[in-house]
Design a protein that fits this description.
Elements: H1 14-19, H2 22-44, H3 47-68, H4 79-93, H5 96-114, H6 119-136
């Protein structure tokens, strides 16, 4: 498979991008693609699909970070791995924004199944999820997790 172009530029430099594995790059590209689709579904009034694509965008960016750090034992095979990654990073600097953004994405995921969130909530959660994805990008500059990181469960 060909390596995708850097969709995260300028937030992630081309030098950083080239250092990432193909799998990591594909997760990042998928995150951006899914968020674009989420906004399209939102414009079309399909809140269920907008919600699921928003969740998918967050999950893919988390998988990118975990894949980038897999040599350090960071995993991403299950929802609880993603949650543990966020909590591990948030606990380093008491970054509640990470938790808040992740919870917004989880609310979107729940709405896919329940389809009961009003448009303003889906819109708000998509905005928070998109911000969360942006906050996760700088972690990809690091080839290993920061000192003291623990993917706690």
């Amino acid at each position: 498979m060909t390596t995708p172009n850097n969709p995260a530029s300028p937030l992630l430099t081309d030098t950083d991008w080239q250092r990432l594995s193909n799998d990591t790059q594909e997760y990042v590209a998928a995150s951006f693609e899914l968020m674009t689709k989420a906004h399209g579904y939102l414009r079309d009034g399909d809140l269920r699909q907008a919600s699921e694509k928003g969740w998918g965008s967050a999950a893919q960016i988390l998988k990118a970070v975990a894949e980038n750090w897999k040599d350090a034992g960071v995993t991403h095979g299950r929802h609880q791995d993603l949650r543990a990654l966020v909590h591990g990073l948030a606990s380093l600097n008491n970054e509640s924004d990470l938790d808040t953004g992740f919870y917004a994405a989880q609310d979107l995921h729940e709405n896919f199944y329940e389809n009961d969130a009003p448009e303003y909530i889906v819109t708000l959660n998509l905005r928070r999820t998109e911000q969360f994805c942006g906050v996760m990008l700088p972690w990809l500059r690091r080839p290993r997790p920061p000192q003291g990181f623990r993917q706690g469960r």
